[in-house]
């Protein structure tokens, strides 16, 4: 599943909905916080015996994370990443 830009995602999503409606297929949409697990990154770096990066050392609870949107209909899978600034601009 490749990550599309936001406009392409919306265009393809509307096409999926139009194609799914006449044949009664379900379209599943999901949204979740897009991040990686810092603990896994640190463990991987320790396994490789490298110095942990400054990115892995800083863990902040007030950090703003982008959102990952996914759509699935049969074998068709779409995804996009939306930053918080883009979401507030669209309101």
Automatic annotation (TrEMBL):
SUPFAM superfamilies for the chain: Signal recognition particle alu RNA binding heterodimer, SRP9/14 (SSF54762)
Keyword Ribonucleoprotein part of the UniProt annotation: yes
One GO cellular component, as annotated: signal recognition particle, endoplasmic reticulum targeting
GO MF annotation terms: 7S RNA binding; endoplasmic reticulum signal peptide binding
Keyword Protease assigned: no
Cellular compartment(s): Cytoplasm
InterPro entries: Signal_recog_particle_SRP14, Signal_recog_particle_SRP9/14
Keywords: Cytoplasm, Ribonucleoprotein, RNA-binding, Signal recognition particle
Annotated GO biological process: SRP-dependent cotranslational protein targeting to membrane
UniProt similarity note: Belongs to the SRP14 family.
Name of the protein described by the UniProt record: 7330_t:CDS:1
Source organism of the structure: Paraglomus occultum
The organism's taxonomic lineage, starting at the top: Eukaryota, Fungi, Fungi incertae sedis, Mucoromycota, Glomeromycotina
